[in-house]
Every structure is written in structure tokens, then in C-alpha cells.
From TrEMBL:
It is found in: Cell membrane. Involved in protein export. Participates in an early event of protein translocation. The chain crosses the membrane at residues 6-24, 58-77. GO terms for biological process: intracellular protein transmembrane transport; protein secretion; protein transport by the Sec complex. Residues 85-109 are annotated as: Disordered. Keywords: Cell membrane, Membrane, Protein transport, Translocation, Transmembrane, Transmembrane helix, Transport. It is a multi-pass membrane protein. One of its GO terms (molecular function) is protein-transporting ATPase activity. This is Protein-export membrane protein SecG. It comes from the Bacteria. Residues 90-102 have a biased composition (Polar residues).
Length: 109
């Protein structure tokens, strides 16, 4: 399994987690944080801590996604510099392709 494939799998997982975290949030104070009830920030594990956790995890997952995308891009670029395709090497040692313009076509009347 190539390095790019590993990065691609990690990108898909992080993107899915980011979607879940964003969908749980509600910009008007609803979502998961409102389901715990109460409105005071004095509660342990209450509304304030839940929204802080979701906010921090959104930023962390977004940052991780960006880093993984950059690393995947660099792994593609490093793999291209390793060498050319074997197919290109084989074609360079074979005979040139015949000219297809010299085909025996029936003449138009």
C-alpha cells in the first residue's frame, strides 16, 4: 500500500468526523449542547463545555485535514521524482510506430 493510499484513507476518516462534528453543532445554541438541558455555564459537562469541545474539535479536525491533504500532495510529488514509468522505457527500445496516413483506402469517386 502506497503512502498516498494511507493518506487518502486518513483524509476520508477525518472528513467524515468533521462532518459529524459540524452536523452536531447548531449555530443558534441548539444541537447537542442544548440537549443536556440547563443554560448555566456552571454545570460540569453542560452547555458551555459541550460547545467549547465541539468548537475545539472542529478546529482540530479542520487543521488535521489540511495537514493530511498537504502531506498527501507532497507524497504524490515525491513519488513522481523516483522514476519514469516502465511503459515509457519499453516503448523507447521498440520499433517506431508505422505511419497510419499510408493506409490503402478506397478512392472516392
Amino acid at each position: 500500500m502506497s503512502t498516498f493510499s494511507i493518506f487518502l484513507i486518513l483524509i476520508v476518516i477525518v472528513a467524515f468526523l468533521l462532518i459529524v462534528v459540524v452536523m452536531v453543532q447548531n449555530p443558534k445554541g441548539g444541537g447537542l449542547s442544548s440537549s443536556f438541558g440547563g443554560g448555566g455555564s456552571q454545570q460540569v459537562g453542560g452547555v458551555k463545555q459541550t460547545s467549547d469541545f465541539l468548537d475545539k474539535s472542529t478546529w482540530a479536525l479542520a487543521t488535521l485535514l489540511l495537514v493530511l491533504i498537504l502531506l498527501a500532495n507532497s507524497s504524490i510529488l515525491s513519488n513522481k521524482s523516483v522514476g519514469d514509468s516502465k511503459l515509457l522505457d519499453e516503448n523507447s527500445t521498440t520499433q517506431p510506430v508505422e505511419n497510419t496516413n499510408d493506409l490503402d483506402l478506397p478512392e472516392a469517386e
